[in-house]
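Sample 3 of the quickstart, ligand zinc ion:
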Amino acid sequence: MAYQVIARKYRPQQFDQVVGQEHVTRTLAHAIQQSRIAHAYLLCGPRGTGKTTIARIFGKCLRCVRAPTPTPCDQCDECRAIMEGRSLDMLEFDAASHTQVEKIRELIIEGVQYAPATGRFKLYLVDEVHMLSVSSFNALLKTLEEPPPHVIFLFATTDPEKLPATILSRCQRFDLRRIPVPLIAQHLKRIAELEGIQIDEPALYAIARGADGALRDAESALDQLISFCGERIVEADVLSMFGLTAQQQLLTLAEMLLRGDAAGMLRELDQLAQHGKDLGRLLSDLLSHFRNLLVFQVSGGNLELLEVSDSTKAAIQAQAPQVSTEALTAMLEALTEAEAGLRDAASKRIFVEVALLKVMRARQAVRLDTVLQQLQKLRAEQAHGGTAAAGLAGPPPAAMLRPEFDTPRPAQPTAPEILAPSSSASAGGSAPAQGPVAAPPGSAAQAQPPVADPTLARLWERFLAAIEQENGFTRGLLDKAFPVSLEQQVLTIALAPDAAYNFDLLNDSRRLAVFRAKLQELGLPNAQVRVVQPQPSPAAAPVPVAPTGQAGQVAAPQAGGSEPLPPAPPQPPGRTAARSAGRKKEVQPLKLDPEQFKNDPLIEAALKKFEGQIIKVET
Ligand SMILES: [Zn+2]
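Result:
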């Protein structure tokens, strides 16, 4: 018997022999069993995934002497004629060949009028159907609108997007997938056994990876390797023949990217380039390795989802804990960008070197929402003398302090009203730059309105401490909130006017549940929590100021660290109104001195945490 290429010799002849497209073959077999045959089928998918193979098997199912059957006999004249591509009633056209395009039009349009020479159905298989001319599509459309009952069209295409919608809507569409690497490797292994070829597993996986989901490419590669190497094939043969990178080298390179070892990475890359490895291929191999790492992490360590050999699985298990999901995503994005840009690169090697250095840097990227969360936490720590800001010198700029609160509270005629002495800032000038001086003791605490009821104040303190232990972020949200009352088991919490944006976050049902649980721990088993919106402050929207009884007004201490005045007696209406006007000025944006800004403990702590630097100060 004459030599036959592997792809042809092992071409599937039955639906159950088709590799990796069960979702298509099973549906078609059912349709035949139930005699629900459509007039036009569209098979879409990458090259070498089995489109024409499936179409021919389908043709045999409908034209075999046993037809209709999902398991054609492969013995009768018609089965063999279709297998050899010489059937008179199953005609094949290739729209990709220019010489055929116009002929197709004539043949199809003329031919559909005539009944099949034998059997019930006449089939037209048009490969790469998207290449047909507009006039061919128009002619085809007429036939598709009113197809003769004996005609079935089988269209195959690698590019369904290019088909007119009028054609698409008249076809039953099937999408063939790229065949997974392990399935290709398994299929090649079976062929090798039948051919009496010795081939090791890394070699099988290398061929399968190189085929990129196309079984026919993998079979052709095996063919070439057999004629090149004889009856024994190892991974090195595959790699050198196709310019692929050994899986081990790839894993080493990935390891260096993860560790941030730039020198090692460049050395490794140099080795690969000197051995003439395909650098574009290398990038896409790295991309799929990092994708595997991400899948492994996100799936909670599920190795079943990965299409890799056992040795690679072990490497993935070892590498995944070295990197956060966040950093991995950033690295994947950088690799994707690099792969897209490689085509236009003048020097592929330099491009890949720079690209991999960028990937390495992406590893250290911090997402913006993490930055915000950390900042919230820092702020919370600072406000409560936490570790981040403790001991740091320098007065906080006025803008960083809480502005006054003005929320109606239970009338307390004797409640203290604290006002800081006016400074250059409140007079409209800029705050003077100052050397580091000790912050006024307790200035942050005094920015909070004092809670008149000592029991409530104590409860609030313990409540905040309990929340702090539970969740730093939630604790940060309460930074600009204060207790209004505890009445009939309801703890009412009000927000400062400049923290109104936290209202929805605090009213979240899960947070409220946490609050209730904490109150329960503090000995209030049935307590509820109510968060109320801040009232518009007189500074933001001037309203008549109540003459007396409006307790708890606090003006922010000005930069400079002056001690607040002792509590003042209730003031006559005139003076309060005047002060209200004075406060209005304070809300104007303050001009910040960058030097002073740098000395702010919160900024300093943030810079340290993110290893950042101040580039520009905007007010
Ligand atoms: Zn047959």
